[in-house]
């Protein structure tokens, strides 16, 4: 009967029947009703007790309690509970997924709540950022928010987590590059390895240039400028934008100066095809002093980063 009342939204009537506070299922169902009624302060009071005493209903109680804290805007406490639960050696899969989703949502709400103060104050703690980097699946907006915040913090505090992230082939290439640039800015003197598209690179951020400070950016850009700036300035800007994307994707892969012309020609060709422009491959060969087979080889790399 109580379950039917709850399912139909008759929370007040269900609450009137839930009086045995020594029963853990009763304590859990009361939380469901209180949250349904948006009685969050009362839910918080009862939730703390229910969480402390829960056994069989533990994960369900934690879920309702975290929801209550989120609704009250008590993001730090909710986040701390989720970090603690997600760091446990074992957690049932369905609750791991539920808590991971809740963690992302609460961090985003915390960010929105602090939006006006974002430029002045720290929003995410280093522990919260580390937890995001450890997650198997992460909301992309949240990921880039915490990476932006990480620039203001001491990245050395989470170097082991970053090393794991850089080696994980499932992690996005762009986020890996941003992490490396943060470490370059903070002059982190640590040997580490990074995976990009199946290749592995040994790096030490303290000795590395920022992506757009590489000679390749200027060198390839010069070829594109000579070929396009006067005749097609719009295409030139599009190609330069794509060059930045390409370099961020493959960093720290080194591009030597004898390949600058080929990469420039390939970017010119690829961007033109994306824009459905007619382009004569023989003209490109003459303009960039290379042949079609070289261009097509690099185009395969460009297509790889679009997958």
What characteristics describe this protein?
Serine Threonine Protein Phosphatase 5, Tetratricopeptide repeat; 64% helix; 3% strand; single chain; 307 residues; 3 domains; mainly alpha
How would you characterize the overall build of this protein?
The chain contains 16 helices and 2 strands. The chain has 307 residues and is mainly α. Helix 5 runs antiparallel to helix 6 (75-86). It has 3 domains: 2-115, Serine Threonine Protein Phosphatase 5, Tetratricopeptide repeat (Alpha Horseshoe), CATH 1.25.40; 121-209, no CATH class; 212-304, Cyclin A, domain 1, CATH 1.10.472.
Summary, kept brief:
The protein is mainly α. It contains 16 helices and two strands.
Topology:
Elements: H1 2-7, H2 11-17, H3 24-36, H4 40-53, H5 58-71, H6 75-86, H7 93-113, H8 126-134, H9 140-150, H10 159-167, H11 173-185, E1 192-196, E2 199-203, H12 215-228, H13 233-250, H14 260-274, H15 281-288, H16 292-304
Antiparallel strand pairs: 1-2
Helix pairs in contact: 2-3, 3-4, 3-5, 4-5, 5-6, 5-7, 6-7, 8-9, 9-11, 12-13, 12-14, 13-14, 14-15, 14-16
Protein name: Tetratricopeptide repeat protein
Organism: Longibaculum muris
């Amino acid at each position: 009967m109580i379950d039917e009342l709850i399912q139909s939204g008759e929370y007040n009537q269900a609450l009137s029947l839930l009086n045995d506070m020594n029963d853990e299922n009763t304590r859990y169902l009361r939380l469901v009703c209180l949250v349904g009624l948006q009685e969050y302060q009362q839910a918080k009071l009862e939730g703390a007790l229910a969480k402390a005493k829960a056994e069989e209903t533990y994960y369900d109680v934690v879920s309702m309690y975290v929801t209550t804290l989120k609704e009250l805007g008590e993001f730090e406490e909710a986040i701390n509970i989720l970090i603690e639960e997600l760091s446990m050696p074992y957690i049932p899969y369905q609750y791991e997924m539920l808590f991971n989703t809740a963690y992302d949502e609460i961090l985003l709400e915390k960010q929105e709540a602090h939006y006006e103060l974002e430029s002045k104050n720290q929003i995410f703690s280093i522990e919260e950022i580390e937890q995001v980097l450890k997650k198997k699946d992460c909301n992309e907006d949240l990921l880039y928010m915490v990476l932006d915040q990480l620039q203001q913090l001491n990245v050395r505090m989470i170097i082991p987590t970053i090393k794991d992230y850089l080696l994980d082939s499932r992690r996005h290439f762009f986020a890996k590059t941003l992490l490396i640039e943060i470490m370059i800015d903070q002059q982190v003197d640590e040997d580490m390895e990074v995976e990009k598209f199946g290749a592995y690179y040994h790096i030490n951020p303290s000795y590395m240039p920022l992506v757009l400070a590489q000679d390749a950016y200027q060198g390839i850009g010069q070829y594109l400028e000579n070929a396009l700036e006067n005749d097609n300035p719009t295409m030139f800007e599009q190609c330069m934008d794509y060059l930045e994307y390409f370099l961020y994707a493959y960093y720290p892969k080194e591009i030597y100066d004898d390949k600058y012309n080929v990469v420039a020609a390939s970017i010119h060709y690829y961007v033109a095809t994306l824009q459905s422009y007619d382009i004569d491959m023989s003209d490109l060969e003459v303009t960039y002093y290379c042949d079609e087979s070289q261009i097509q080889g690099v185009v395969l790399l460009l297509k790889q980063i679009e997958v």
